[in-house]
Write a structure and sequence with these properties.
The protein has 248 residues and is an alpha/beta fold. It contains 9 helices and 9 strands. The chain has one domain: Rossmann fold, CATH 3.40.50. Helix 1 links the parallel strand 1 and strand 2. Helix 3 runs parallel beside helix 5. It is globular and about 55 Å long. The structure holds NADP nicotinamide-adenine-dinucleotide phosphate (NAP). NADP nicotinamide-adenine-dinucleotide phosphate (NAP) binds next to helix 1.
Length: 248
């Protein structure tokens, strides 16, 4: 039987200031006294973000690029009690032209969007397996479907993260722990500020609602909007000479 989460009592949000993460939390219906740990670099901003959440809020310092700290960080969170839901939302989207000029920055983006999720979620999985229950939400993207020249480093991190998450989900099968992989299209908000919305653009609130619904069901993958799944199939079929002409 797959884990279903309707009313989580203890939640860890990695990337604690994430707009999408916040909208997921707002759509949940936690029982009284529930706790969320907002984990990220900017403690002040996260404390502000936490003010209107339906949870008791704790903030904790977490840097997705500080790989050597992740096992200890996760051990400490679980030492304080069981965790029902872990949302892995840390991420950066940087203009490809900037990355072309600054390969080190591209490497740090890979650490944030991929490697840090691997080191953190493997540590999380150890504890959830021991609990024999719990849920992990991983924020992939439609960018994982096919690399585009306009953001291929970001796309490569999401493709890697998506593959990692599918493999982890399979390895957790039967353990009582479930992983929900979320593939939003373009989300209008802080991360995409200044960019013209792509076709089928959505909002963080819509992603939050879709994730809350999926957590209460049994899905392993959710596209937002739902028709993005069909669009992704079409994207895979576009001949490469045409694909490389896409402006973004
Ligand atoms: N927005 C979109 O169009 C879209 C579409 C598909 C998927 N996604 C994915 O959804 C996730 C959430 O995105 P969002 O839209 O909610 O963007 P967001 O509001 O910018 O949230 C991203 C979060 O990641 C945190 N972060 C960045 N680098 C970090 C690091 N080294 N250590 C710890 N935290 C770090 C940021 O914290 P700081 O404030 O400290 O930088 C921020 O809180 C990301 O993984 C993103 O790739 C977004």
């Amino acid at each position: 039987m797959n884990e279903r989460i309707r009313r989580p009592g203890r939640v860890l949000l990695l990337g604690g200031g994430s707009e999408i993460g916040r909208e997921i939390l707002l759509k949940l219906d936690p029982p009284p006294g529930s706790e969320v740990i907002l984990a990220g670099r900017d403690l002040q901003r996260m404390a502000q973000c936490g003010e209107s959440l339906p949870f008791r809020v704790r903030t904790a310092y977490y840097d997705a690029t500080a790989l050597e700290t992740h096992q200890r960080f996760v051990d400490e969170v679980f030492a304080d009690g069981p965790v029902d839901l872990v949302i892995s939302a840390a991420g950066v989207l940087t203009d490809q032209e900037l990355l072309d000029r600054d390969p080190l920055r591209a490497g740090l983006l890979v650490q944030t969007n991929l490697t840090g999720h691997v080191t953190t979620l493997l540590a999380v999985a150890q504890h959830l397996r021991a609990q024999r229950r719990g849920m992990i939400v991983v924020l992939s993207s439609v960018a994982a479907v096919r690399p585009r020249k306009a953001n291929f480093v970001y796309g490569a991190t999401k493709a890697g993260l998506d593959a990692f998450a599918r493999g982890l989900a399979d390895s957790l099968h039967g353990s009582g722990v479930r992983l929900l992989l979320v593939r939003p299209g373009f989300v209008i908000g802080r991360m995409t500020a200044g960019m013209a919305p792509a076709p089928a653009a959505t909002t963080a609130a819509a992603v939050g609602a879709a994730v809350a619904t999926a957590l209460a069901g049994s899905a392993s993958v959710v596209w937002v909007p739902r028709r993005m799944g069909a669009l992704a199939t079409a994207m895979r079929l576009i001949p490469r000479p045409l694909w490389r002409k896409l402006p973004r």
